[in-house]
């Protein structure tokens, strides 16, 4: 989020056709819940376009990028690398340390799709489980970002939107953002 060290989500192992929707949802969740950028590995240009389109309509800043290889990103990351995995340390045990680290340094949050190569576990500064049960990378990312930002992301402001949703008890209202 603005005025804080950046948080970047790295999505591994995109399989065209199989992972398209999940990869898009990783990007949308990263954007909505406070991350600054998403990196999609592989042939994920459709996901990037969808995320860019949402950012153009509903605001940013948020960047989505397609990259060829994740290893240089992890290896050269100048900050903290967090890999979300059901085998990791419990998020409730490490969240305070991670918030403290994020006050000083950028955080790279790595999420998988299929089997994650072991070097990712080794290169990560933290392997973190959102429960130690198998579920979804989108769910894990959402809970993790909420813990990292401690709820602050729910109040963030959006720049450059061409529309704003007015929260309502019932019904839908979308207005000009300057209204
Ligand atoms: N079977 C794969 C493996 O062993 O690496 C993981 C498949 S899972 C559907 C895809 C991704 O969801 C994982 O790479 C991880 O990032 C995330 N994930 C699933 N369950 C999780 C959990 N309990 N905590 C954190 N992340 C989780």
UniProtKB/TrEMBL annotation:
Protein name: tRNA (cytidine(56)-2'-O)-methyltransferase
Assembly, per entry: Homodimer.
Binding site residues for S-adenosyl-L-methionine: 84, 112-116
InterPro entries named in the record: Alpha/beta_knot_MTases, tRNA_m1G_MTases_N, tRNA_mtfrase_aTrm56
Keywords recorded for this protein, A-Z: Cytoplasm, Methyltransferase, S-adenosyl-L-methionine, Transferase, tRNA processing
Gene3D superfamilies reported for this sequence: 3.40.1280.10
Location(s) in or outside the cell: Cytoplasm
One GO cellular component term: cytoplasm
HAMAP family assigned to the protein according to its UniProt record, in alphabetical order: tRNA_methyltr_aTrm56 (MF_00077)
Species whose genome carries this gene: Halopelagius inordinatus
């Amino acid at each position: 989020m603005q005025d804080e060290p950046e948080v970047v989500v790295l999505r591994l192992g995109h399989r065209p056709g199989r992972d398209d929707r999940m990869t898009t949802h990783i990007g949308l969740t990263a954007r909505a819940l406070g991350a600054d950028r998403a990196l999609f590995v592989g042939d994920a240009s459709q996901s990037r376009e969808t995320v860019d389109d949402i950012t153009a309509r509903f605001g940013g800043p948020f960047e989505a990028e397609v990259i060829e290889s994740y290893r240089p990103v992890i290896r050269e990351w100048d900050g903290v690398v967090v890999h979300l995995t059901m085998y990791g340390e419990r998020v409730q045990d490490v969240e305070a340390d991670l918030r403290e680290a994020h006050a000083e340094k950028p955080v790279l949050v790595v999420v998988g799709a299929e089997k994650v190569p072991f070097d990712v576990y080794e290169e990560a500064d933290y392997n973190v489980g959102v429960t130690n049960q198998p579920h979804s990378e989108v769910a894990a990312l959402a809970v993790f970002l909420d813990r990292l930002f401690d709820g602050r992301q729910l109040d963030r402001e959006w720049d450059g939107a061409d529309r704003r949703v007015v929260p309502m008890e019932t019904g839908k209202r979308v207005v000009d953002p300057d209204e």
